Amino acid sequence: MNGADIGKKPGSGVPGSEGKDPVANGHAENESNPFAEYMWMENEEEYNRQVEEELLEQEFLERCFQEMLDEEDQDWFIPERDLPSVGQIQQQLNGLSVSDGNAEEILRKSILNPEAKEFVPGVKY
């Protein structure tokens, strides 16, 4: 038997296929489901829908988590963010002035009792 005779025998020398005739599509006739390797495609739309739902759920959770962190940042006192800068404080101080020129006029127009006792919180008179 030479190399040319091997290719002419049924089964073409493939191990385990001696005596079996190959079918045109490459699958044996007695194979239960010739499309077994493509069965995953049967539920491809369902799989895609499920993956899309999982991705949307993951995105939703990430957004919720980020919103929670943002809310937490707003609730916390952060000096760098919540306190005015030195420049802003200096600007406000420069706008202040002390003058006694109007004090007498304010006292004349006042309707407060100058003889009243000094208010002390928590003390009842």
Automatic annotation (TrEMBL):
TM helices/strands, residue ranges: none
GO cellular component, one term: cytoplasm
Matching InterPro entries: PAIP2-like, PAM2_motif
Domain of life: Eukaryota
Disordered: annotated span: 1-35
Record's keyword terms, sorted: Translation regulation, Ubl conjugation
One BP term from GO: negative regulation of translational initiation
GO function terms (MF aspect): mRNA regulatory element binding translation repressor activity
Family membership: Belongs to the PAIP2 family.
Protein name: Polyadenylate-binding protein-interacting protein 2B-like isoform X2
Species in which this protein is naturally found: Carassius auratus (Goldfish)
Gene expressing this chain: LOC113106617
